[in-house]
Amino acid sequence: MKHKESKLLVGTGKGLIIYKKNGAEWKAVSSQFVGLPVSVVFVDERTNTWWVCLAHRHWGQKIHRSFDEGLNWEPVETPAYPSGTLLKSGKPASLKKVWCMTHAGVDRPGELYLGTEPGGLFHSTNNGDSFELVEALWNHPTRQHEWFGAGRDHPFIHSIVVDPNDSNHFYIAISCAGVFETKDNGQNWFPRNKGLIATYLPNPDIEVGHDPHLLLACASDPKVMWQQNHCGIFRSVDGSATWDNVTGKSGFPNYGFALAIDHDNTERAWVIPAVSDTTRVAVDQALCVCRTDDGGQSWKALRAGLPQEHCFDIVFRHSLAIQKQTLAFGTTTGNLFLSEDDGEHWQVLSNYLARINVVTFA
């Protein structure tokens, strides 16, 4: 039986790079969409369909899919906000950016979700041939007055987490609004932000108005959820009903974007800290990955193989990925690192890429 090669897909501001592992060595084997800004890379494990979203400055958002692992690509129709859909300003809503993509569950072949800016969730029932806006979320009573942009003009959905045990049950995370949950396939939505803090608002305990940077749930126990948040690191063990602040006790790690979790060990997670929203560089100009093995009670800084002097790199929300014991991340200055021992030691795969927006294993 032929051994299946491991693949790493890296979406950058200048194209998609595909790496493969043969034996002990990882090598870049091809480049796709050269010169174009890749904003989303998603691999649908149900069908092994690869998806790429492009964020053109001139032509807007474009979506492509491949059924043969990137040998050939075909465009699909870009979703559009329906006529008459209005922003809070009363202006017509239009698609600004696709932020994330996922499938709707193993029991729902052909169903996909897109998270977009300005805060719309789109659903496809035909493997992306077309997408429809989830009106119940767009019409949620909090959207008009309690959602707002975070470093962007509009709020955006960057995380979609589907319960592997119940595809009617899923979550989204919005910057800025917070975590929302539905248990009836998107017909009704409820904010799930108890325990989060929004230090940038007059009322830090507000129900809606939080800024999760990334939301993940453990596949083996979906009630265990993690988020890297603008105001710290948070963990829930009750399916987002309540959140515990598991920021490092000394204040490190704290601020950051990227997050990875162990889907078998609910106590283990990784983050990559940055200084702050106003100073987006590595803490002490030394790049490190922090791992917890006890549910966030303590954190270990992992630095072996990473630059420790005059480093200005940070890692964006979708630019850290995990596959078993292997982790990979890419930075804003185009550096790509990989570890095959849970982050204890790192190797450089490339120093010469454009800004890395997304990293995922295939």
Describe the structure concisely for a colleague.
With 362 residues, the protein is mainly beta. The chain has helices at 135-138, 143-146; strands spanning 6-12, 15-22, 25-32, 38-44, 49-56, 60-66, 74-76, 97-103, 112-117, 121-124, 132-133, 156-162, 170-175, 178-182, 190-191, 212-218, 221-229, 232-236, 244-245, 256-261, 269-273, 289-292, 300-302, 320-323, 326-330, 336-339, 347-350, 356-361.
Write structural notes for this entry.
- With 362 residues, this protein is an all-beta fold.
- It has one domain: Methylamine Dehydrogenase, Chain H (7 Propeller), CATH 2.130.10.
- The chain has 2 helices and 28 strands.
- The strands form 7 sheets. Strands 3-2-1-28 form a 4-stranded antiparallel sheet, with no helix packed on it. It has a 4-stranded antiparallel sheet with strand order 4-5-6-7, with no helix packed on it. Strands 8-9-10-11 form a 4-stranded antiparallel sheet.
- Strand 5 (49-56) and strand 6 form a beta hairpin.
- The longest helix is centred in the middle third of the chain and has 4 residues, at 135-138.
- It is globular.
Radius of gyration: 19 Å
The stretches of 5 or more residues where confidence is low (pLDDT under 50) are none
Number of strands: 28
Note the beta-strand portion. Answer: 35-45%
Domain count: 1
Approximately how much helix is present in the residues? under 10%
**Biggest sheet architecture:** 4 strands, antiparallel
* CATH homologous superfamily designation: YVTN repeat-like/Quinoprotein amine dehydrogenase
What structural category do the secondary elements indicate?
mainly beta
Distance between the termini: 19 Å
Q: What's the CATH architecture name?
A: 7 Propeller
